[in-house]
Design brief:
Length: about 190
């Protein structure tokens, strides 16, 4: 059981340090020391700092990305679909605020940065899921055809802004907020 505890402690300490100071500012020695293990222990589990980040992101976002895929599955009602996406995203941000904030930090790194390259599969999957939703919706709403990439990017940005405001206590994650988010976004795509 000790080995599993060490691994989990390393992941939690890394997330705490990465989210509070950024990926570059948190060193392997500091992460290991704060977790109460040696650097070789960290390397044993993750291979490198980038490997630690990759594991942290894959395991930390797995359930959210699965829920996002399910929420974004278009079944004829785009408003309902968008509302489900808003719900799972805001719930994830509230449940895992350190991870969500850290993801947002990584979003703004240059594309060639080590951490940005590691997180790219997460961002790519989010956008691909949203793009697919909008492609499917365009079959019903012809005026949306060919705009799926722009819609996915702008809706993703809209979601991130709302999530930050919810995490900071400026907005309350309730039915009214989810309704407003969907309506504000939908007004532009249906016109």
């Amino acid at each position: 059981m000790q080995a599993h505890d060490n691994r989990q402690r390393l992941l939690q300490v890394a997330l705490t340090l990465f989210a509070s100071r950024g990926y570059d500012a948190a060193g392997v020695q500091e992460i290991a020391a704060d977790a109460g293990v040696t650097k070789p222990t960290l390397y044993h589990y993750f291979g490198s700092k980038a490997g630690l980040l990759d594991t942290l992101l894959r395991e930390g976002t797995r359930d959210y990305l699965h829920a996002l895929d399910e929420a974004a599955r278009f079944a004829g009602d785009l408003t309902l679909c968008l509302s489900r996406v808003v719900s799972v995203t805001l719930e994830f941000a509230q449940r895992r605020p350190d991870l969500y904030r850290f993801l947002l930090m990584l979003l703004f790194l240059p594309l060639d940065h080590e951490a940005r390259r590691v997180v790219s599969p997460v961002f790519d999957r989010q956008l691909r899921t949203l793009e697919t939703m909008f492609v499917e919706a365009a079959r019903k709403h012809g005026n949306m055809a060919g705009r799926h990439q722009r819609y996915a990017v702008t809706f993703h940005g809209h979601l991130n802004s709302c999530a930050v405001l919810v995490m900071n206590g400026v907005l309350v994650n309730d039915d009214r907020l989810r309704h407003d988010v969907v309506q504000q976004f939908s007004y532009g795509i249906y016109s």
